[in-house]
Amino acid sequence: MLTEASIAQQLILDKETSLSLSQASIEDALDQISASTGVFFSYNANIIQENQRFTLQLQNKPLKEALSQLFLGTGVDFKVVNDQIVLFKKNESLSKPHYTVTGYVQDKYTNEPVVGVNVFIAGTLMGSSTNLDGVFKIENVAVSSFELAASHISYHIAISKVEITKDSSEVRVDFKLDPKVNQLKELKVVSLKYKEWEKYYSIFKQEFLGSTRNASKCEILNPEVLDFTFNSFKKSIEVKAYKPLIIINAALGYELDYYLQYFEIGNGNTRSTGISNFKELEPKNEREERRWAKNRLKSYQGSLTHFLRSLIKGNYEEEGYEIFSVNKLPDNEDVKPEKVDVNAILINTKVVDEKKIKFNNYLKIVYTKENESPAYVDNQLKQAMGIDPYVKDYYNSVRRGVSLGKQTSYMKLNFPVATITPRGFFKEPLAVAAFGYWSWERVAEYLPIEYEP
């Protein structure tokens, strides 16, 4: 039931405003809003960098929407207090970071320390390198479960599963690295002619990066590290990478070192595992920084991570999700969905904000706030019509008359039960199989674990 105070707050946020900003300071932007709405703002002068400038054109938009667009990518949030709007910085993470992970890396056979090893938390921006004594240190790590990886060009990558709880005291992880036997073997196309390799690489790139708009802005800098094998018995392409793939994602503003562990394409399915280490790119200007922030938010909204976080928080309906149970994936026959009672599929654990999930058959998840991409609908049409999805000279836009539905994905458990971490990831590798829209979005949409909208 809405209180009188909450109704008054909503009325303030519903006030309409028009903005015409071109390289305006925060003071000028807020003064323009105050002049048109009569609403005043309270904030710390340090909340926005002094040289931060805003360019935005809006016509008759609710104040809530105008402020959301104005502060997109700045980390600033707002709330109504009495008759004014208070600005503040968002929390930087779901869990307050306060642990340091240390360790020692040595050669498996000589027991000598290994210098210059890249030690990182998989899927994040967090990492360090070993010093002359083979010691590394990663600070400000949150209470969480994660994979810690140690990588060096002369050694096979080593991965250790780590769990930090509130009861943890010292977090130490040591590694013994296994040297690569053939150091002199340069990576090259093995047993494949160049045209064959080029064909397989084109298929791999589409399946690995995806075919979204962001994928067209991604570049693999070292494709020569890939080796392709056609398995005639399984009718599949098996892919190996002898070094981490270096990927520049110019749409989201990240560089990824991706360690491909397994990749196979066959029978209409792609199966893969791997871990990634993120680095933020330096934006050329403020415009590019805002574009990255906008693209990151779009990639996040409707993603599997977004969905899982909304389950943990219990606000999945508010975030735009509808959840159904179906007996099978849709085909030519009608599949009648039944709405799911989320409380019946989630199980509390001893860890705060961690849940286990258990369900039969498939979950159908509809994200109601965005339509499916035209490129995705194209892909589905090609498959339904038996057209090779890798043929580029086919049409690249949806045929007229084809309606775009809401983003719809399906999920099936590979184990009897799976654990969802507070940050919106599954603790068990390969815990679920995703179908539909989530299976279409690939590495080009990846965000680091610590990303917060």
Summarize the structure.
By secondary structure, the protein is an alpha+beta fold.
- Helix fraction, binned, reads 10-25%
Distance N to C terminus: 28 Å
On the 0 to 100 scale, the average pLDDT is 84
**What are the segments in which pLDDT stays under 50 over at least 5 consecutive residues?**
183-191, 393-402
Structure description:
Strands 14, 15, 16, 17, 18 and 19 form a 6-stranded antiparallel beta sheet that branches. The chain has 9 helices and 27 strands. The protein has helices spanning 4-13, 26-37, 63-70, 194-209, 286-300, 304-313, 342-345, 374-384, 437-440; strands at 16-24, 40-42, 54-62, 76-81, 84-89, 99-107, 118-121, 127-129, 135-141, 144-152, 155-164, 171-172, 175-177, 218-220, 226-231, 236-241, 245-249, 254-266, 269-280, 321-326, 338-339, 346-348, 355-357, 362-371, 406-413, 418-420, 432-436. It folds into 4 domains: 4-89, Phage tail protein beta-alpha-beta fold (3-Layer(bab) Sandwich); 99-177, Sandwich (Immunoglobulin-like), CATH 2.60.40; 194-255, no CATH class; 303-445, no CATH class. Helices cover 20% and strands 36% of the residues. Strand 18 and strand 19 form a beta hairpin. By secondary structure, it is α+β, with helices and mostly antiparallel strands.
